[in-house]
Amino acid sequence: MALQYPGRIVIGIDARGGMVAVEGWLKTSEMPAVELAGKFAHLPLAGLVYTDIARDGMLSGPNVEALRAMVAAVPIPVIASGGVTTAADVADVAALGAAGCIIGRTLYEGQLTLAEALRAAGEGAE
Questions:
Q1: pTM, 2 dp
Q2: With contact defined as beta carbons under 8 Å apart, do 59 and 85 qualify?
Q3: How far apart are CA 10 and CA 122, in angstroms?
């Protein structure tokens, strides 16, 4: 599909403890998330959403070490998901070279505004 629609497909990899989580996060496989990501590195993907499921919705900050490893492992733009809560978290994700991050619960609960997130990412806000 990525070959047929270059630059228009985003894949998602969910991980627990660095290992790929499957079947709705019920099972953890024996495959490291960075290894699975590497299998897609040759494809013309728009991006890869990397979710650390232990942090997702917990408002506990992103798993910086796992994210750093994922960004370093593939040439695909990586979007961080899971735990991003504060402007400092957004700045940390940007500093790692991630293409972006998903901020959900923190927005819903009013702990971070979109303008604050954009400023922290170095994008400015209008």
A1: 0.89
A2: yes
A3: 23
- Calpha distance 118→37 (Å, rounded): 27
Instruction: Copy the structure tokens of residue 80.
Output: 């961080």
Residue 20 near residue 29, CB atoms below 8 Å = yes
Distance CA 115, CA 112 (A): 8
- pLDDT per residue, tens digit, the chain (126 aa), is 999 999 999 999 999 999 999 988 888 899 999 999 999 999 999 999 999 998 776 677 899 999 999 999 999 999 999 989 999 999 999 999 999 999 988 999 999 999 999 999 987 655
Copy the structure tokens of residue 2. Answer: 């990525």
Beta carbons of 31 and 19 less than 8 angstroms apart: yes
State the architecture of 10-120 in CATH terms.
Alpha-Beta Barrel (3.20)
Whose CA is closest to 75, among 34, 42, 35? Answer: 42
* Residue whose structure tokens are 């922290």: 120
